[in-house]
Design goal:
Chain lengths: 158, 172
């Protein structure tokens, strides 16, 4: 009997230990080669087995490599071109895409995630494979020629 | 006593196991995966001065006038577009997505730094439906391009006009 009680106590201790790891300070990794650049990641998000009524989400990571705060614009974008077998998202898909923060202001050298969610209403229709982009641009850009960075979302229906 | 212990173990199992199972049931149907990679480009210079423009002028810029510094960690496709349907300043010009100049209507073309203006590499710079300027660009490979202006056939004023050209990079 004592063994069983002991076993329960040990199991409990193991469970608690598994849940609360002591924090360990690790040295900061050296800045990567894009530390001083503006970049986004990932380049491509694939959603599989999607269906009307479903929700999928993934963050786009934005890095401000500049030495001053920058306001970014995060927007839904019709795909300029599509992957093989995919077509452009239906027009209404713009309403299905939720951008948690469309105008994030990042401090110098800050990296931040902005959550992107696709929520397809029940009963809505979409092609078997469709694609849209999430565009990120530095809203403080001036000049005649500007740049924009895009994250592709490829959605495959169930 | 044994029954009590068994009951405790059963209760623990009921508390711990279903939480994970319920999560799996709700999320297993839809899969979300991401391809690692960073998208990062800059362009220089950021301005273009076509100089004094007369009606019917066609002004070709050098094909290596703009340099796109490509620090993407994946191969990319790059498109070109203008962000508005009009050129601002004074009596605005309409922007022709077919590059057909008309009264107060101008067009733009872009071209990679390969070949020459007038060949198959000409890309009409549109407001609706961006054109592919540089496809399958290998990661971390810089590239260059030029711009060509098709001035209106008639202009209503001589006030400076401007429009924003945008280069968009996306993973292949």
């Amino acid at each position: 009997m004592k063994k069983i009680i002991g076993l329960i106590i040990v199991t409990g201790l193991l469970l608690v230990a598994g849940c609360t790891q002591p924090s360990v300070e690790t040295p900061s990794p050296p800045p990567d080669e894009l530390y001083d650049e503006v970049w986004i990641s990932p380049g491509k998000v694939m959603v599989g087995n999607f269906y009307s009524g479903a929700r999928a989400e993934y963050p786009v990571t934005i890095h401000n490599g500049k030495d001053q705060p920058v306001e970014f614009s995060v927007t839904y974008r019709v795909a300029d071109n599509t992957a093989e077998g995919f077509v452009r998202a239906p027009d209404v898909a713009e309403d299905w895409v939720i951008i948690a923060d469309p105008t994030p202001v990042l401090a110098a050298k800050e990296t931040r995630e902005v959550l992107i969610a696709v929520e397809m209403p029940k009963g809505a229709n979409a092609p078997p494979k469709w694609e849209f982009w999430v565009a990120v641009r530095d809203a403080t850009q001036t000049g005649m020629v500007q740049t924009e960075l895009a994250c592709r979302w490829l959605v495959t229906m169930r | 006593m044994k029954k009590t212990i068994l009951a405790i173990l059963l209760a623990l199992a009921l508390v711990l196991i279903p939480a994970g199972s319920a999560f799996a049931i709700n999320t297993a149907d839809v899969t979300v995966t991401a391809t690692p990679g960073k998208i990062s480009i800059t362009v220089f210079p950021i301005t273009k001065d076509f100089g004094p423009v007369a009606a019917d002028d066609v002004i070709e810029g050098a094909l290596d006038e703009f340099t796109v510094t490509n620090k993407c960690s994946v191969d990319t496709n790059n498109t070109v577009s203008v962000t508005t349907a009009t050129w601002g300043g004074g009596a605005t010009w309409a922007h022709s997505d077919t590059c057909e100049p008309a009264v107060d209507t101008a067009g733009l073309k872009a071209h990679l730094n390969a070949g020459a203006w007038g060949d198959a590499g000409d890309v009409i710079v549109k407001n609706v439906g961006p054109g592919t300027l540089a496809a399958g660009v290998v990661k971390k490979t810089d590239w260059k391009f030029g711009l060509k202006l098709y001035a209106p056939t008639e202009v209503s004023d001589e006030i400076l006009k401007s429009i924003i050209v945008r280069i968009t990079a996306a993973s292949v």
